[in-house]
Amino acid sequence: MNNQPIGLFDSGIGGTSIWKEVIKLLPNENSIYLSDSKNAPYGEKSSKEIVALAIKNTEILLSKGCKLIIVACNTATTNAIDYLRKHYNVPFIGIEPAIKPAALYSKTGAVGILATKGTLSSKLFEKTTREYAKNITTIEQKGAGLVPLIETGKINSTETIQLLETYLKPMLQFNIDHLVLGCTHYPYLIPSIKNILGPNVNIIDSGEAVAKQTKTVLEKNNLLNKIETNPKHQFFTNGNKKVIESILQPINLDLSIKQLDF
Ligand code: DGL
After folding, report:
1. Is the whole-model pTM more than 0.90?
2. 6-95+207-259 in CATH: which number?
3. Which pLDDT value is given to residue 4?
C-alpha cells in the first residue's frame, strides 16, 4: 500500500503548482495527476456540477490505486470535499484560500482575495471568512476569464496582464498588504501580479502548506513510501497535452504525460 501513488486532480494544469510542492517535500512518493481541462473552468459551474466532477475524478484515481487524494483545486475543495470525505475511505487533502494567515499578519487590516466564483460563493469560504476575517476588511474579486487564459498557454499574454490589472488595481485603493491566491492556477501568474501590486503586498499561496499537511496525514496513517527507488509521476489530461507538457518541461523527473478521455 505504501508505494501506491498519491492522486491529485484539478480542472486543468493549476494543481501542478501543488504537485510541485508535494514532490519537493515528499521525493519518494509516486503520483498520478488528473488534469480535467475539458471541464474547465469549474469556477463557473454550479455546486452540484462541481461535486459530480469531483466524484468522477476521485473514482478514476481510486481505480488506479491511489492511497490518498489531494483535491488540488480550491473550487472543488470548497464545494465537494465534505462529500468526498463522507463517501470514500482514503484520506483527502484539500486547498482553500489562506484567509487565516493573511488576516493574522495584515498590518493595514485590508486583505485582497482573488478566487473563482465557485469558491467565493461556497459555504466553506463563507464560514472561513466569518471565522477568521471578522476584524479585517476583505476585498473579494472573482478571477473570471483567468483560468481559460492559463489553460490555453497565455500566461504572459497582454490579455492576461490587462485582466489582472482590472482585477487587482482597485484593491490598492483599499491599502491591502496581502493578496490571497484562491485558485491553484494563479501561482503561475505571480510574476505579473507582483508587477501590478508592487513590493508592499505579500502574495499568499497555500501550496507549501498543502504539501506539509499531506506529509502529516501520510505519517499519521502509516502511508509514507520509504522505498527509495525512482518514483514515477503519471499525468493524464483530457485537454491539450502541449500545455501541461510546457508547464512541466523544466522538471527533471521521471514523468509520463498521456492524453486520456475522462
Ligand atoms: N484550479 C482551480 C481552483 O483552484 C480552478 C478553478 C476553475 O477551473 O475555475 O479553483
Report:
1. yes
2. 3.40.50.1860
3. 96
To test the pocket of ligand 1, the residue of 38, 73, 181 to mutate (highest count of ligand atoms within 8 Å of its CB) is: 73
Closest to 116 (Cα-Cα) out of 38, 20, 180, 51: 180
**Using CA atoms, how far apart are residues 203 and 159, in angstroms rounded to an integer?**
21
**CA atoms within 13 Å, Cβ hemisphere of 110:** 12
Architecture of domain 99-204: 3-Layer(aba) Sandwich (3.40)
pLDDT in tens, 19-65: 999 999 999 999 999 999 999 999 999 999 999 999 999 999 999 99
Instruction: Give me ligand 1 centre to Cα 185, in Å.
Output: 6
pLDDT tens digits, 160-169: 999 999 999 9
* DSSP state, residue 251: -
Instruction: Give catalytic status of residue 66 as yes or no.
Output: no
The CATH 3.40.50.1860 domain(s) of the chain lie at 6-95+207-259, 99-204
Ligand 1 centroid vs 43 CA: distance in angstroms?
Answer: 6
Q: Which residues of the chain have pLDDT under 50?
A: none
- Work out whether strand 92-93 and strand 68-71 pair parallel, antiparallel, or are unpaired: parallel
Residues, the chain, total?
262
How far is the centre of ligand 1, averaged over its atoms, from the C-alpha of 72 (Å)? 9
- What are the DSSP E strand ranges found in the chain? 6-10, 31-35, 68-71, 92-93, 110-115, 137-142, 178-182, 202-204, 233-237, 255-259
At 245, is the secondary structure helix, strand, or coil?
helix
The one-character DSSP state at 186 is G
